[in-house]
User: What shape does this take?
Amino acid sequence: MGHFHRWTKAETNLLIRKYRTVGDTKLANLFNEKFPKKVNIWTFRHIAKKRSYLGLKRTKAEEHRLRCENNKDGRHFRS
Assistant: This one.
């Protein structure tokens, strides 16, 4: 049976504060540094799923800015 991670208030608050300015992959890296899990690691899918549950959506302008940042960093963002 898999392990289930229950989000803490600190994790949720950080996500709410940062989701508009930081992409999901970078957020996952930040979460791995700040809130390491005992089993598995944080992935962009964990972040995206929680954002969805909380109804945290980025505007088109925010998404565009994150795409441009990802391209500068050498990451390719799916449209």
